[in-house]
Amino acid sequence: MSTLDIDKALDAITDWQEESYIHLHKNPELSMQETETCDFIEAELEKLGYQVQRIGGGVVGVLENGKGATVLFRADIDALPVKESTGFEYASTITRTDENGNEVPVMHACGHDFHIVANLGAARILSENTDAWSGTHIALFQPGEETAAGAKSMVEDGLVDKLPKPDVALGQHVLAGPMRSGQVGTHVGPILSTGASIKVTLHGKGSHGSMPHLGVDPVVLASAIVLRLQTVVSREINPFSMAVLTVGSVQAGSKSNIIPDSAQLLINIRAYDMGVREQLLAGIKRVVVAECEAANCPQAPEFEVYDSYPLTDNDVATTEKVTKAFVDHFGADRVMDCGEVSASEDFSFIPDAFGIDYCYWGFGGFEAGAQTYPNHNPAFGPVMQPTLRTGTEAAIVACLAWLKE
């Protein structure tokens, strides 16, 4: 088995990767609508000799190269309904029709375009250097991460039955910190939080603004609930347990002198423990129900849990193996423990469906000292290089930790 010169191989594909990145950045698509993106990915994988399938709205390429381990590397591919303000020459000006029929601006405000091109770059280098590894490489491109629908969609469409069973699953995400561009960060155990959103519908009783005694005011009720919910984390969750509860939206009424008959709250929660997650959900329901009873609501509140994300909990041995491979390749100064990140991912639905171990890590997107913006911000614009190169290197190095055995 020959030795793969990763730096030389990356130099040879830099122009292609940058052109691909710019194309994808300029043409983002919303969750579960990634038709053009999937067409682009499929065409590239077929050029590289991968066996390609469309599964659950995503694309999967399989390259068999003799005996050895089977490694699945996953990249998410969707964008967000955000108007870009990065100032890049290649900034997105695209608008798309969302699920409600509204025309909205769209941008890759979470860096999934980097993920796509890094995965494609790894696939290209592995396909062009089959004498340097042995086994099976699965390049998986997943839709709908931003709505927690994509991984489930692929699993429900028979992902497990349509692919050879992997020995391990790997994934990564470009982040604003704590790594700088050119660095990677791993973490043993929980690395991304479990998360969920809850839509709460409150039922009041409409009335004239001058006759509040004839109604049940859902605006006052919603306000009381928002304040009371602040105690769920501060007074019910163990201070040593991470928990976040955010009321991101309160919708009620249309005119100053009309007491509406309903109100709606949109709530988001995060935790590093499934037990804490359930405690948060129970606390929300208990507070809402109690406040509705206190307000003498004519109808019980309604709850809808959506965008539900699992805990991303890195396997110890797998993460230690990936970390060692990174240190050997990048050097200790470019590898760090990124700690726990409060964002959430649906990545783990895929390895959990196969019943296999996994490792998920981050890589930096902003240069040291540069102004940084968090993922989902309209100005989130990681520097193209060395971010793209580092993400590609990390994907190759991690896969080869199994494929060279």
From TrEMBL:
<dbReference type="Pfam" id="PF07687">
    <property type="entry name" value="M20_dimer"/>
</dbReference>
<dbReference type="GO" id="GO:0050118">
    <property type="term" value="F:N-acetyldiaminopimelate deacetylase activity"/>
</dbReference>
<keyword id="KW-0464">Manganese</keyword>
<dbReference type="InterPro" id="IPR002933">
    <property type="entry name" value="Peptidase_M20"/>
</dbReference>
<feature type="binding site">
    <location>
        <position position="146"/>
    </location>
    <ligand>
        <name>Mn(2+) 2</name>
    </ligand>
</feature>
<feature type="binding site">
    <location>
        <position position="110"/>
    </location>
    <ligand>
        <name>Mn(2+) 2</name>
    </ligand>
</feature>
<feature type="binding site">
    <location>
        <position position="376"/>
    </location>
    <ligand>
        <name>Mn(2+) 2</name>
    </ligand>
</feature>
<dbReference type="InterPro" id="IPR011650">
    <property type="entry name" value="Peptidase_M20_dimer"/>
</dbReference>
<keyword id="KW-0479">Metal-binding</keyword>
<dbReference type="Pfam" id="PF01546">
    <property type="entry name" value="Peptidase_M20"/>
</dbReference>
<protein>
    <submittedName>
        <fullName>Hippurate hydrolase</fullName>
        <ecNumber>3.5.1.32</ecNumber>
    </submittedName>
</protein>
<feature type="binding site">
    <location>
        <position position="112"/>
    </location>
    <ligand>
        <name>Mn(2+) 2</name>
    </ligand>
</feature>
<dbReference type="InterPro" id="IPR017439">
    <property type="entry name" value="Amidohydrolase"/>
</dbReference>
<feature type="domain" description="Peptidase M20 dimerisation">
    <location>
        <begin position="196"/>
        <end position="292"/>
    </location>
</feature>
<keyword id="KW-0378">Hydrolase</keyword>
<dbReference type="GO" id="GO:0047980">
    <property type="term" value="F:hippurate hydrolase activity"/>
</dbReference>
<feature type="binding site">
    <location>
        <position position="173"/>
    </location>
    <ligand>
        <name>Mn(2+) 1</name>
    </ligand>
</feature>
<dbReference type="GO" id="GO:0019877">
    <property type="term" value="P:diaminopimelate biosynthetic process"/>
</dbReference>
<dbReference type="GO" id="GO:0046872">
    <property type="term" value="F:metal ion binding"/>
</dbReference>
<dbReference type="InterPro" id="IPR036264">
    <property type="entry name" value="Bact_exopeptidase_dim_dom"/>
</dbReference>
